[in-house]
Design brief:
Shape: globular
Distance between the termini: 32 Å
CATH architecture of the largest domain: Alpha-Beta Complex
Oligomer: single chain
CATH superfamily of the largest domain: Aminoglycoside phosphotransferase (APH), C-terminal lobe
Number of helices: 11
Order of helices and strands: EHHEEEHEEEHHHHEEEEHHHH
CATH class of the largest domain: Alpha Beta
Helix content: 25-40%
Number of domains: 2
Length: 368
């Protein structure tokens, strides 16, 4: 996958390179209920396949799930239960964010570990491929970015505390067991990615952004290349771990979703990315400061207390900021080129600059 063409999306107020960026509503079960007035299937052919595979011929209509933007995402209700269905768009290759079966493989492999991941309820490889998973209760709110959603500061803090513990437990899953589970589900565990691999991946995305939209990026990239940490024992890496991808019911995590870019690699990749979302000052004009959220250092301590073992270093924090700036810059470029019209992208330049400046400061390079 070329990340400059199809990089990770970021829910809530952060930017995404495949659809909408800032100021979107948080995803909740109420989003699904609000569509109850529809009576027809959004995709009748897919709906028939799903009902047959689930053995639920009398299930309700297949409706588009608002907030699901990786491939095609739907919801189907069967009495008191529900299923989220993710499908490859017809005519599109099952690659990158559209490789939905790859997402189902890791979810199936994680069953039985006590982690808040949705259970896979059905899958089919026949083109266009799809899989179904249980519809979990709760909402996914990114405190510093979902500025249109009210979330009490104590609740936001406790959710982030619990999320750090979820991440520690996720990284503690033995890779040999995970590999067996992925194979049993029909997939293959990828080769581990090193910190240098991650740097090259997101550097490519950054270089796809016009230079005038990323001031100071060359210096940040140079600083990152000059002191790449050695790889540590690899773990399962979610790739986009944060509260915006963790449904919670009250304070309780119920489902870690959006597994589009999961892989095997350095645990500090996930921890560094999660830490970016503690600081609203990194998102001027598009985010907000939320008092009382754990600091990046505190997240690291909570993470290690739950099974994570690696310290949270400045290099990985800077890498995460570079990654976010690259994604936002790429989104803005796509908007200005007319490939994805979204005027809200014009709010992003101050945030891109702030992220790059923060990354440089972390590595001792100062701000531009």
């Amino acid at each position: 996958m070329n990340d400059a063409d199809d990089p990770v999306r970021v829910v809530g107020g952060a930017a995404r390179a495949d659809d909408d960026p800032v100021g979107r509503n948080a995803m909740t079960q109420e989003t699904v209920a609000a569509q109850a007035g529809h009576t027809d299937d959004a995709d009748p052919v897919l709906a028939d396949r799903v009902r047959a595979a689930l053995g639920t011929p009398d299930a309700g209509p297949l409706r588009v799930l608002e907030g699901g933007r990786s491939g095609l995402t739907y919801v189907l209700h069967d009495g008191g239960s529900g299923h989220v269905v993710k499908a490859v768009p017809p005519g599109r290759p099952a690659r990158g964010r559209h490789d939905v079966l790859r997402q189902s493989h890791v979810l199936s492999a994680l069953a039985g570990y006590g982690l808040p991941v949705p259970a896979v309820t059905a899958r089919e490889e026949e083109v266009p491929a799809w899989f179904a998973m249980e519809l979990a209760a709760g909402e996914a709110v990114e405190p510093v970015l979902d500025v249109g959603t009210e979330l009490h500061t104590d609740l936001a803090r406790e959710r982030m505390v619990r999320a750090a513990r979820v991440l520690g437990a996720l990284h503690a899953v033995p890779l040999d067991h995970l590999a067996d589970g992925v194979r049993a589900a029909g997939g293959v565990l990828p080769e581990p990615a090193t910190p240098h691999d991650e740097l090259l991946r997101w550097e490519e995305t950054m270089h796809a952004v016009p230079a005038e939209l990323r001031p100071g990026s060359a210096e940040l990239l140079q600083a990152l290349h000059s002191d790449v940490p050695a790889a540590v024992a690899p773990v399962l890496v979610h790739g986009d771990f944060r509260l915006g991808n963790l449904l919670c019911s009250g304070v309780e995590p119920t489902a870690l979703v959006d597994w589009e870019i999961w892989g095997v690699g350095d645990p500090r990749i996930d921890l560094g990315w999660f830490g970016v979302f503690t600081d609203g000052t990194l998102f001027p004009g598009v985010g907000r400061v939320v008092a009382g959220l754990p600091s990046e250092d505190e997240l690291g301590e909570l993470y290690r207390g739950a099974g994570g073992t690696q310290p949270h270093t400045a290099w990985f924090r800077a890498l995460a900021r570079m990654k976010m700036a690259a994604i936002m810059g790429h989104n803005l470029r796509r908007h200005r080129e007319g490939r994805h019209h979204d005027p809200v992208q014009e709010q992003l330049p101050p945030t891109i600059a702030a992220l790059i400046d923060s990354g440089r400061a972390l590595l001792g390079g100062g701000a531009s």
